[in-house]
Automatic annotation (TrEMBL):
Record protein name field: Flavin-containing monooxygenase
Broad EC category: oxidoreductase
Top-level lineage group: Eukaryota
Family, per entry: Belongs to the FMO family.
Assigned EC number: 1.-.-.-
Length: 435
């Protein structure tokens, strides 16, 4: 007989909602703790920025979302939905294939309503402590605090962590960073470009946020200089922008305000924007050192989800990078729900620990840094397909995989306006007719 457990889910973003739905489907008793007042997590645009724009002050008031006002999705909507609940265009919505962020929020709100998840959520409840109190009976204490700071402790049989991974800024490190007299911020606190009017701005990074911010700041700034890591990077003017250059990474930032790049070029900058990613952060987790975050490696975690010695009672959904977030989140959520109900078995603790160690050994041998532990690029869709087989699900549509890899290359095909220039529907037809 399937087990029905009391399960706490932390967070009501994409991962928390997916986890809640799968746990509910499996017959578990689900309570979702959400510190905000609405579902959506990252997709709830928040005008507020943090008091410390670099996010270094541990006592700053945290703003969860990292969205900028103009953000449009960076993957076609066709691969942002759930297997049985696609992210379709609605009559009164944003009809674009790469819609604005408001459309994703509406999608998640509808998802929560349509699957009866809203009633499972305790809004305004921030989880401040998760701790195993009885190993034999696998009892976890979950302490949550309301916005009025009232605190409650409750016991659960399992906890699923879905608190997101895009809130705690990771900064570029270079000599002089902390004494440079100009203005610095992390993209987590970037909302709109106005404050950079007529300024000379350095944007660090080469991923979606960096290129979006750069393009948005350039028309009003005096100059924009992008700093990018990598031996192949050469100083060049950026196409389609009149006042933007790409440089190799920053060598140092001087107290006279000058920023020196590793190729010797120098700019007299007013501002530096770090579009350099985020750190995993679980301030509520008391695991007696069983789970650590070391250089952005959360470990040990079997297949990015289960810490061997605490599994299956503690799990993490949504930690992986370099994949289609919603697809991976949904598969991980199904896995957790079915393992908790006893329908699926995990390998033994020793086998899971061995698998984690093998991954670490492989990374060491290949020279991969720890912060790549949860990045799936190298293995393509192997992880997703492995989960699909384990869960005995219908194979994933092949075109989704192709679409994901094509979206990675898209910028070089369609210049900077790839979101509008790529005819995604025609592309799907072509792929389907070639099969
Ligand atoms: P979140 O959406 O961050 O949700 C976490 C939730 O947990 C939040 O609601 C938060 O309030 C809550 N929470 C946190 N701590 C606590 C606590 N202690 N107690 C209670 N509640 C807590 N993905 C795409 O598929 N397409 C895109 O185009 C795309 N664009 C992106 C652009 C940016 C700038 C960023 C940063 C990410 C983007 N992503 C995109 C990735 C996106 O983060 C994931 O798709 C997905 O939204 C992550 O969901 P999540 O539930 O893991 O985290």
């Amino acid at each position: 007989m399937a087990l029905s457990l009391q399960v706490a889910v932390i967070g009501a973003g994409t991962a928390g909602l997916a986890a809640a739905r799968e746990l509910k489907r499996e017959g578990h008793q689900v309570t979702v703790f959400e510190k905000g007042n609405k579902v959506g997590g990252l997709w709830l645009y928040d005008l507020r920025v943090e008091t410390d724009p670099l996010g270094l002050d541990p006592n700053r008031e945290i703003v969860h979302s990292s969205l900028y006002r103009s953000l449009r999705v960076n993957l076609p909507r066709h691969i942002m939905g759930f297997t049985d609940y696609p992210f379709v265009k609605k009559a009164d919505g944003d009809p674009r294939n790469f819609p604005g962020h408001e459309e994703v929020l509406r999608f998640l709100e509808d998802f929560a309503v349509d699957f009866g998840l809203v009633e499972l959520i305790r809004f305004g409840h921030e989880v401040v402590r998760v701790e195993l109190i009885d190993e034999l009976r696998h009892e976890w204490i979950v302490e949550s605090r309301t916005q009025g700071k009232e605190s409650t402790e409750e016991i659960f049989e399992a906890v699923v962590v879905c608190n997101g991974k895009h809130t705690e800024p990771k900064l570029a490190d270079f000599p002089g960073r902390d004494t440079w007299p100009g203005f610095q911020m992390h993209s987590h606190n970037y909302r709109t470009p106005e404050q950079f009017k007529n300024k000379i701005v350095v944007v660090i990074g080469n991923k979606s946020s960096a290129s979006d911010v750069l393009k948005e700041v350039s028309p009003i700034a005096k100059e924009v200089h992008q700093a990018v890591r990598g031996p192949e990077i050469q100083l060049k003017r950026l196409e389609n922008l009149n006042n933007a250059w790409q440089h190799i990474m920053i060598e140092c930032a001087r107290e006279d305000g000058k920023v020196v790049f590793q190729d010797g070029s120098i700019v007299d900058a007013d501002a530096i924007i770090h579009c350099t990613g985020y750190k995993y952060h679980f301030p509520f987790l008391r695991s007696n050192g069983v789970i650590t975050v070391d250089n952005n490696r959360v470990g040990p975690l079997y297949k990015d989800v289960f810490p061997p010695s605490l599994s299956p009672w503690l799990s993490f959904v949504g930690l992986t990078n370099g994949a289609v977030p919603t697809i991976v989140i949904e598969l991980q959520a199904i896995w957790v729900a079915k393992v908790l109900s006893g329908k699926l078995k995990l390998p033994s603790q020793q086998e899971m620990a061995k698998s984690v160690q093998e991954l670490y050994n492989h990374m060491d041998k290949s020279g991969l840094p720890k912060d790549q532990t949860h990045t799936l690029q190298q293995t393509k869709f192997d992880y997703e397909n492995w989960l699909v087989a384990l869960l005995d699900l219908r194979p994933l549509d092949k075109w989704k995989e192709k679409m994901f890899y094509f979206s990675k290359k898209i910028k070089s095909y369609y210049s900077d306006n790839y979101r509008d220039e790529w005819d995604v529907d025609k592309w799907i037809q072509e792929i389907e007719s070639s099969n």
